[in-house]
Amino acid sequence: MSSHSCHEVDKAHRKSKKNVGSLESLPLQLQNAYDEQSGAFKNINEIRQTFASKGPKDFQKIRILGRGGVGKVYLVRLKNTDKLFAMKVLKQDEMIQKNKVKRVLTEREILATANHPFIVNLYYSFQTRSRLYFVMDYCAGGEFYRTIQTQPNKCLTEDQIRFYAAEVLLALEYLHMMGFIYRDLKPENILLHASGHIRLTDFDLCKASVTPVNVRVIQSMMGNSVALVAEPSLVTNSFVGTEEYLAPEVIKGRGYRASVDWWTFGILLYEMLYGITPFRGVNRYDTFSKIEKSQLKFPDRQHSSVSKECKNLIRKLLLHDPKKRLGSEHGATEIRAHPFFGKITWPLLLNMTPPLVPTLSGPQDTRYFSNRIVDDEKDAEDLEAIDASSLEANHPFKSFTSLNREREAPVKAASKETEMEKKIYKKKSSKQLSSREAESNSKGAAEEPYKRDSKSHKSLSRSHRSKIKSKLEFSNSEEANVGSKCTKDSVIASSGSQDSDCLIDQKSVVLQKPPHKR
Q1: pTM for this one?
Q2: Which residue ranges does the chain devote to CATH 1.10.510.10?
Q3: Which residue from 103, 71, 108, 104 is spatially nearest to 88, judged by alpha carbons?
Q4: Sign of the C-alpha dihedral computed for residues 43, 44, 46 and 50 taken in this order
Q5: Among residues 35, 58, 159, 184, which one is catalytic?
Q6: Annotation marks residue 184 as catalytic
Q7: How far apart are CA 89 and CA 70, in angstroms?
Q8: To which CATH superfamily is domain 144-357 assigned?
C-alpha cells in the first residue's frame, strides 16, 4: 500500500468514533476496513489485501454489450458494490493468431496513462492464462453513431454539433499533447455517457511519438493571453484508418503528421451535419479517388440552413494540402479560435448541459445496445488472475501488467440517485420509447458499443496486393503489403506482420450485410 494511503489510515485512525462520517472521503476499501464497534481499523494486512489487484472473479456479468472478432464487451458489476463498468475481454490466442498483440498493448498504454473527462477511463486491467481484461467506463448511451442515426433526418443541429465537436476536439488535443496521433476518429469510436457527454474510445490504431513532444508558448488567438501548443513531431506513412475518413496524404503513402486527425475531425463534422461522409464512392477505389481529387460540396439541408462559419470550418479542415490545413501549425489552438466555436466557454464545457442526454429508467438500462447480441461462449473462462511478472520473458503479454485505479472509480453506489441522476434516469419504460428509438433497437442499430473487431479471412493474393499498391500509388512497398479481413460492417486490410501498421477499416465495401447501412 502506498505511503499516501497509509497516511490516510493513520489520520482516520486518530479520529474519534463520533467523527466516523469523515471516512466517506476515503477509498471504499478503507471504509470497509473500519470496524464501527471498536472504532478502529482492521489489521493492516487485511487493508493491504483490499488494495490487491482485481480479477475476473471480482466482477459479476450482467449482460453482453458488444462483440468483435477477438473479444467481447460486458456490462459488469463490481461485487459487494453497486458500481457498474464495461469489461472488455480479449482472448490471448486469437490476439496472437491475428497479429494484434502490439495493438492491444498500445491501447493499454494509452488508457493506463490517460486522465481526461472526454476519454474513456480505465479502472482495472488484468490477465488470466487465456484472456486479457479491460474494465472501463460504462457509457449507457452506446455508440455516438447510433445516436446520430436516431435523430431527425439522421443528423444533428449546429448547436448540437458545436457542443460535441468541442468535446472531441479537447480529447484529440490531449492525445496530441501526450504524443499520440489518433488516426481512427469516427462516430463508432465515440461513446455517449449517461450524463450526455462523450467519451473517446478505441486507441489500438494510435501512433506514439518516440521523442518527447515539444511544448511551445504562443500568443493566444482568443485574446491577449498565451497558449500552449504541443503537437507530435513524428512522421509516418502507415496505411491505417477508416476508409471514408482517410486523409489524402495517407492514401498517397508519402508520409503524414498529426494533421491527419484534423482531416478526420472535419469529416466527422460533415457527417454530423449531413448524416453522410463527403467523399464516399461506390467502391474502395472510387472513394480513394474522390478523396484525392474531388472538390468538397455542401448539399442543401431542407430542414435547416448551414451557417457560413460551419462551412468555413469544414473547408479549412478538409484542405488537401496538410501544410495549409487548419490546425497543422498550432494544433487545436487554431481550431478552438475559429468563429464557429465562438459560443463555447472552453473551461466550463464539462459543466454545460449536454444537448442529448440518454433516456434511461435506471443505471442498468441497456436500451441503447442491441438485444440481438448473444453470448455464445463455449470455452470455460479462467477466473484466476495472474501476475505478469510470473510470465516468461518472451511472453507476448509480459508487459500487460495489472492496473488498479480504484481511487478514480465512481465513488457513489449506482443505486443511490443524486438530483442530477433523477433527471437522467427518467421513469420511462421501454414501451414508451419513441418510434424512432424502438425501430432502431429492433434492428440492432448498434451491434457493438466498442470498436468492431475483424473476422479472419484468407490473405489477398500477391497480384491483388500489387494491384492495390499501383492503385493507391504507394511510395513505400512495405507499407502496402496488405491482407484481407472482414467485419459485419467493414472490411479491414491488414498486413501479416505483427509490427505492421497497414490497416484499412472500410465502410462502403462490405462482404456481409452491415447492421447499419450508410
Answers
A1: 0.73
A2: 144-357
A3: 71
A4: positive
A5: 184
A6: yes
A7: 9
A8: Transferase(Phosphotransferase) domain 1 (1.10.510.10)
